[in-house]
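2024-03-11 09:14:02 INFO worker-7 job=invfold-0412 stage=load source=structure_tokens
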């Protein structure tokens, strides 16, 4: 089997999907319905197909997404002729086709690992009793925003997924009102804001200094009152 492909100025390879699907006897319309963001980022390019002189616009996938698409094809849902050709393609790109079918996402397992590491970093800052609910909130927002679970993230989606998860965590933390924070957490927040501002500010602002002194004084009074109230 011979398929046309394109190489851009950066050396990235793109695969025209319609002629490829038709060559291996897959239904193009059913496959085209799957090739949409956020799972895929297809692009249209002018392609000169074998045996045809005029160039035609074709929907193309970059190499990484093409390989992901090829791994995800279900051999049980295609006719025997297409199944043979799909297996031939998998053997060409991945070596042992049977091993790929047994472990179809093994090479992309690093993406969920990275995202879970970010999530666990945030959960460690929360009381153990509250971690389960927080994890459900964050993973639910991630699914709604991206259209897939953290465990389903693939390597070519990782950069955008990291940005998305970081934004969700940031927005969640910003939504917490200081009035609901324990007194010590409020002091920690002020200290963190002063430390984080060091690269941008040479001198400590009067407002930051006053806020720090007041918060520490209030913290001391809070714990002193709590100590006196004990029986």
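2024-03-11 09:14:09 INFO worker-7 stage=emit residues=231
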């Amino acid at each position: 089997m011979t398929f046309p492909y394109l190489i851009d100025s950066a050396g990235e390879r793109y695969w025209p999907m319609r002629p490829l699907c038709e060559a291996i006897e897959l239904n193009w319309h059913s496959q085209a319905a799957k090739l949409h963001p956020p799972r895929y980022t297809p692009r249209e390019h002018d392609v000169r197909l074998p045996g045809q002189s005029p160039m035609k616009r074709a929907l193309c996938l970059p190499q990484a997404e093409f390989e992901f698409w090829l791994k995800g094809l279900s051999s049980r849902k295609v006719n025997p002729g297409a199944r043979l050709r799909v297996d031939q393609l998998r053997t060409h790109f991945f070596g042992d086709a049977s091993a790929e079918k047994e472990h179809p996402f093994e090479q992309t397992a690093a993406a969920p690992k990275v995202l879970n590491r970010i999530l666990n970093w945030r959960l460690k800052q929360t009381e153990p009793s509250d971690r389960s609910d927080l994890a459900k909130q964050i993973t639910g927002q991630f699914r709604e925003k991206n259209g897939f679970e953290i465990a389903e993230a693939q390597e070519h989606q990782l950069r955008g997924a990291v940005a998305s998860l970081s934004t969700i965590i940031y927005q969640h933390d910003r939504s917490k009102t200081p009035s609901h924070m324990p007194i010590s957490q409020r002091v920690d927040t002020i200290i963190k804001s002063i430390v984080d501002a060091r690269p941008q500010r040479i001198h400590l602002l009067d407002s930051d200094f006053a806020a720090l002194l007041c918060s520490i004084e209030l913290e001391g009074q809070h714990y002193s009152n709590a100590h006196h109230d004990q029986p």
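2024-03-11 09:14:09 INFO worker-7 stage=report msg="The mean pLDDT is 80."
2024-03-11 09:14:10 INFO worker-7 job finished
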